[in-house]
Automatic annotation (TrEMBL):
NCBIfam families xref list: ruvA
Lineage: Bacteria, Pseudomonadati, Bdellovibrionota, Bdellovibrionia, Bdellovibrionales
Keyword DNA repair: yes
Summary of the function given for this chain in its UniProt record: The RuvA-RuvB-RuvC complex processes Holliday junction (HJ) DNA during genetic recombination and DNA repair, while the RuvA-RuvB complex plays an important role in the rescue of blocked DNA replication forks via replication fork reversal (RFR). RuvA specifically binds to HJ cruciform DNA, conferring on it an open structure. The RuvB hexamer acts as an ATP-dependent pump, pulling dsDNA into and through the RuvAB complex. HJ branch migration allows RuvC to scan DNA until it finds its consensus sequence, where it cleaves and resolves the cruciform DNA.
Record's subunit section: Homotetramer. Forms an RuvA(8)-RuvB(12)-Holliday junction (HJ) complex. HJ DNA is sandwiched between 2 RuvA tetramers; dsDNA enters through RuvA and exits via RuvB. An RuvB hexamer assembles on each DNA strand where it exits the tetramer. Each RuvB hexamer is contacted by two RuvA subunits (via domain III) on 2 adjacent RuvB subunits; this complex drives branch migration. In the full resolvosome a probable DNA-RuvA(4)-RuvB(12)-RuvC(2) complex forms which resolves the HJ.
SMART domains: HhH1
Start and end residues of each Helix-hairpin-helix DNA-binding motif class domain: 74-93, 109-128
Subcellular localization(s) per the UniProt record: Cytoplasm
Domain free text: Has three domains with a flexible linker between the domains II and III and assumes an 'L' shape. Domain III is highly mobile and contacts RuvB.
Protein name, as recorded: Holliday junction branch migration complex subunit RuvA
Matching Gene3D superfamilies: 5' to 3' exonuclease, C-terminal subdomain, Nucleic acid-binding proteins
Family: Belongs to the RuvA family.
Length: 193
């Protein structure tokens, strides 16, 4: 399965965007928030986190500008009655941190205000996900601290800032500083100026 794509955003359409990866155009379905981010990044090289959804009659790529949104999307898919399109609609109603707060607070009324979410679906989301989502702030804090240290170490080793930033963006949330630097050394060894 495709985990992420790195390429240029060529076009943003109604509910999807077109990303060029080495001459191949991938159509990525995304939330309104991610599409807004993509619109601001037209023509730029970016990394898009991907969920590949396979059905008998279709293979659809869902794209996310950050891992937090992808993780929340995957969590929403675990809720009975929520499919990929509904999950994208929910994510279009707010940023992941705000939706996460509504779920953790058990705020069915707030969730019902999101696109395509009725009272029963809101209650089902809370029942399924409350207390089971990793706190986005905790993840971001831990990630930003270790990634800052990895970035600093790789820059001190003489790698170019652009290459380091691109590499660090691909690292998993739970990577240790040592593993990150080791992988960076292996991955970037040909990019020293």
């Amino acid at each position: 399965m495709i985990g992420y794509l790195r390429g240029k955003i060529i076009e943003v359409m109604g509910d999807s965007a077109l990303i060029d990866v080495h001459g191949v155009g991938y159509e990525i379905h995304a939330s309104a928030n991610t599409l807004q981010d993509f619109q601001n990044l037209l023509g730029n090289d970016i990394i898009v986190w991907i969920h590949t959804h396979v059905r008998e009659d279709a293979l659809t790529l869902f794209g996310f500008h950050d891992k937090e949104e992808k993780n929340l999307f995957l969590s929403l898919l675990k809720v009975n009655g929520v499919g990929p399109k509904m999950a994208l609609s929910i994510l279009s109603g707010g940023r992941p941190a705000a939706i996460h707060e509504l779920i953790e607070a058990g705020n069915a009324k707030g969730l019902s205000a999101l696109p395509k979410v009725g009272k029963k679906t809101a209650e089902q989301i809370i029942l399924t996900l409350k207390g089971k989502l990793v706190s986005i702030e905790e993840t971001s804090k831990t990630k930003s601290e270790s990634l800052t240290q990895i970035t600093s170490a790789l820059l001190n080793l003489g790698y170019k800032s652009q290459h380091v930033d691109q590499f660090v963006a691909t690292l998993p949330v739970d990577i240790t500083v040592e593993d990150g630097v080791r992988k960076g050394f292996q991955t970037l060894s040909g990019s020293l100026s």
